[in-house]
Amino acid sequence: MQQNHVAAMTADTMAALDVPREVKIPWLAERDKAARWHRYQREVQQEIVDTMKHHGIETLVLKGTNTAQYYPVPELREFGDLDLYFYDRHDEADRVAHEKLKAAVGNDAHHHSKYDYRGITIESHYDFVNTHYPPSNRRYETLLKEICPSPTFEVLFLLRHMAGHFAAARITLRDLVDWALTCRALSDKVDWGRVQDIVTEYGMAPFVSALDDIAERRLGYSIPVRLVHDDDAVEKVERDMVYGSVDSSKADGIKRLIWKSRRWRAMAWKRGMVYSDSPMALWFSSLSSHAEKPQSFLHKQ
Fold this sequence. Notes:
Helix content is about 55%, strand content about 5%. The chain is an alpha+beta fold. Strands 1-2-4-3 form a four-stranded mixed β-sheet.
């Protein structure tokens, strides 16, 4: 449960079960830890938002703390980084973070800068998705900016973000819960016809179909996107979500390059479920992206 980031939200259920004390107590401790961390992050987030607003910069909160609002108990939605978007004023926002918050702003990723503030990692997004990879993300980014902010934007952003993590490494049970609860909370506000068209156009239909099947069977949530799915694909996605399919590596240098090359081949079936880009276009796009930002070879993805 811990590697899937759902230990805190399942703690109350665990407490009601007849399990040994040495199992129950650590589980409840995870719940309390998550709740404290959530409150602390919200405090830090509000300080940053207020600071930026004081300097005329509006903030859009992405992912974690925003998605938590759709949970029955928001404090039990586990997360780490704060993801913030400043409406194309990220350079100014980074300058404010450096000058007013005394943060050391780093820039070794394509679509966000990063800094630590009061013990929390902040990602200041230039774009909603990485427009350097895959190539189709450039069109997707334009689409997202046209409809931001809106419930349809929120669903499409969350979906593409999940698809990217799935193709690069894995998603977890927390991601599935995020998707199901977000769709349920916004069900009567989203243009589902447009969502379904975009899902199909951008090659995400197999992935979304699998997500919807798993969410309906495992969580009891019916999501208003209906696509034909493959039972074998659903089983592979579910197994990968729970257990992962490729071991991580802390290797450096040439060993890391070799590991990433092997992982790239192993993840081919995933890319086929989430991207409409050709394999060749994805390969060259990936090489170009890493060549422009060599530090990205060290990233967890």
